[in-house]
Design goal:
With 150 residues, this protein is an alpha+beta fold. The protein has one domain (3-138): 2-Layer Sandwich (Alpha-D-Glucose-1,6-Bisphosphate, Chain A, domain 4). The protein is built from three helices and seven strands; from the N terminus they run βααββββββα. The two termini are 22 Å apart.
Protein backbone atom coordinates (compact mmCIF):
# COMPACT_ATOMS: atom_id res chain seq x y z
CA UNK A 1 0.00 0.00 0.00
CA UNK A 2 1.39 3.41 -0.92
CA UNK A 3 1.15 6.49 1.28
CA UNK A 4 -1.34 7.90 -1.25
CA UNK A 5 -3.68 5.06 -0.27
CA UNK A 6 -3.44 5.89 3.43
CA UNK A 7 -5.39 8.32 5.55
CA UNK A 8 -4.85 10.17 8.82
CA UNK A 9 -7.33 10.78 11.61
CA UNK A 10 -6.57 13.84 13.74
CA UNK A 11 -8.47 14.87 16.84
CA UNK A 12 -8.02 17.46 19.57
CA UNK A 13 -9.91 17.60 22.82
CA UNK A 14 -9.68 19.62 26.02
CA UNK A 15 -9.73 17.51 29.19
CA UNK A 16 -10.38 19.11 32.57
CA UNK A 17 -7.50 17.25 34.26
CA UNK A 18 -3.76 17.82 34.52
CA UNK A 19 -1.48 16.06 31.99
CA UNK A 20 -0.12 13.63 34.58
CA UNK A 21 -3.66 12.42 35.31
CA UNK A 22 -4.51 12.02 31.61
CA UNK A 23 -1.16 10.27 31.03
CA UNK A 24 -2.08 7.63 33.63
CA UNK A 25 -5.26 6.83 31.65
CA UNK A 26 -3.04 6.08 28.63
CA UNK A 27 -0.42 3.97 30.40
CA UNK A 28 -2.01 2.11 33.33
CA UNK A 29 -4.20 -0.88 32.40
CA UNK A 30 -6.74 -0.47 35.20
CA UNK A 31 -7.30 3.16 34.18
CA UNK A 32 -7.20 2.53 30.44
CA UNK A 33 -10.16 0.14 30.59
CA UNK A 34 -12.27 2.73 32.36
CA UNK A 35 -12.59 4.51 28.99
CA UNK A 36 -11.44 2.00 26.34
CA UNK A 37 -12.34 -1.67 26.19
CA UNK A 38 -12.87 -4.41 28.73
CA UNK A 39 -9.41 -5.85 29.40
CA UNK A 40 -5.93 -4.48 28.74
CA UNK A 41 -2.51 -6.05 28.66
CA UNK A 42 -0.09 -3.19 28.30
CA UNK A 43 3.51 -2.43 29.19
CA UNK A 44 3.94 1.31 28.69
CA UNK A 45 7.57 1.47 27.61
CA UNK A 46 9.18 1.44 24.16
CA UNK A 47 8.78 -2.07 22.76
CA UNK A 48 6.14 -2.92 25.36
CA UNK A 49 2.91 -4.69 24.45
CA UNK A 50 -0.29 -2.74 23.77
CA UNK A 51 -3.30 -5.10 23.64
CA UNK A 52 -6.87 -4.17 24.50
CA UNK A 53 -9.91 -6.40 24.29
CA UNK A 54 -12.57 -3.93 23.18
CA UNK A 55 -15.25 -6.55 23.87
CA UNK A 56 -15.35 -10.33 24.13
CA UNK A 57 -14.53 -10.73 20.44
CA UNK A 58 -12.42 -7.79 19.23
CA UNK A 59 -8.75 -7.23 20.09
CA UNK A 60 -6.81 -4.11 19.16
CA UNK A 61 -3.12 -3.98 19.63
CA UNK A 62 0.43 -3.27 18.74
CA UNK A 63 3.30 -1.98 20.80
CA UNK A 64 4.42 1.19 22.49
CA UNK A 65 7.03 3.09 20.46
CA UNK A 66 7.52 6.14 22.66
CA UNK A 67 6.45 6.98 26.20
CA UNK A 68 7.43 10.41 27.52
CA UNK A 69 5.90 10.96 30.96
CA UNK A 70 3.03 13.42 31.03
CA UNK A 71 3.50 14.69 27.46
CA UNK A 72 3.59 12.03 24.73
CA UNK A 73 2.60 8.42 23.99
CA UNK A 74 3.09 6.71 20.62
CA UNK A 75 1.94 3.17 19.88
CA UNK A 76 1.09 0.98 16.94
CA UNK A 77 -2.54 -0.03 16.44
CA UNK A 78 -4.58 -2.54 14.52
CA UNK A 79 -7.39 -5.05 14.85
CA UNK A 80 -6.85 -8.79 15.10
CA UNK A 81 -8.29 -10.61 12.09
CA UNK A 82 -9.19 -7.45 10.15
CA UNK A 83 -8.05 -5.52 7.09
CA UNK A 84 -6.17 -3.30 9.59
CA UNK A 85 -3.84 -5.92 11.15
CA UNK A 86 -2.40 -5.64 14.66
CA UNK A 87 0.35 -3.01 14.79
CA UNK A 88 -0.17 -1.82 11.21
CA UNK A 89 -0.90 1.87 11.96
CA UNK A 90 0.55 4.43 14.37
CA UNK A 91 -1.21 6.53 17.00
CA UNK A 92 0.57 9.60 18.40
CA UNK A 93 -0.91 11.33 21.42
CA UNK A 94 0.51 14.55 22.83
CA UNK A 95 -0.57 16.24 26.04
CA UNK A 96 -0.13 19.97 26.60
CA UNK A 97 -1.12 21.85 29.77
CA UNK A 98 -3.93 24.30 29.02
CA UNK A 99 -6.10 26.44 31.31
CA UNK A 100 -5.79 24.15 34.33
CA UNK A 101 -6.36 21.04 32.22
CA UNK A 102 -4.89 19.31 29.19
CA UNK A 103 -5.11 19.72 25.44
CA UNK A 104 -4.90 16.20 24.01
CA UNK A 105 -3.92 15.93 20.35
CA UNK A 106 -4.24 12.58 18.61
CA UNK A 107 -2.83 11.71 15.20
CA UNK A 108 -3.61 8.22 13.88
CA UNK A 109 -1.70 7.65 10.64
CA UNK A 110 -1.27 4.91 8.08
CA UNK A 111 -4.97 4.03 7.92
CA UNK A 112 -6.27 2.45 4.72
CA UNK A 113 -8.89 4.71 3.12
CA UNK A 114 -11.68 2.17 3.64
CA UNK A 115 -10.95 2.11 7.41
CA UNK A 116 -10.74 5.89 8.00
CA UNK A 117 -14.42 6.53 8.87
CA UNK A 118 -14.51 3.55 11.25
CA UNK A 119 -11.34 4.65 13.05
CA UNK A 120 -12.52 8.29 13.23
CA UNK A 121 -15.84 7.24 14.77
CA UNK A 122 -14.01 5.05 17.26
CA UNK A 123 -11.70 7.84 18.37
CA UNK A 124 -14.59 10.30 18.72
CA UNK A 125 -16.41 7.81 20.94
CA UNK A 126 -13.38 6.84 23.01
CA UNK A 127 -11.89 10.32 23.51
CA UNK A 128 -15.24 11.62 24.78
CA UNK A 129 -15.19 8.81 27.37
CA UNK A 130 -11.57 9.61 28.29
CA UNK A 131 -12.43 13.29 28.88
CA UNK A 132 -15.18 12.31 31.31
CA UNK A 133 -13.22 9.71 33.30
CA UNK A 134 -9.96 11.71 33.50
CA UNK A 135 -11.90 14.68 34.87
CA UNK A 136 -13.24 12.44 37.66
CA UNK A 137 -16.60 11.56 36.11
CA UNK A 138 -18.23 8.27 35.27
CA UNK A 139 -18.79 7.70 31.53
CA UNK A 140 -21.05 4.74 32.33
CA UNK A 141 -20.80 1.32 30.72
CA UNK A 142 -19.29 1.40 27.27
CA UNK A 143 -21.88 0.07 24.81
CA UNK A 144 -19.01 -0.98 22.51
CA UNK A 145 -17.62 -3.24 25.24
CA UNK A 146 -20.69 -5.46 24.97
CA UNK A 147 -21.31 -5.26 21.22
CA UNK A 148 -18.96 -6.85 18.67
CA UNK A 149 -17.45 -4.25 16.34
CA UNK A 150 -17.67 -4.25 12.56
Amino acid sequence: MTSADQEVVEREIYIAARPEIVFAFLTEPEKLVRWLGMHAMINAQPGGVFHIHINERDLVGGEYLEVTPYSRVVFTWGWEGSSLPLGSTTVEITLQPEAGGTRLSLRHRGIPKEQRAFQATGWDHSLARLAIVAAGGDPGPDPWATTPMG
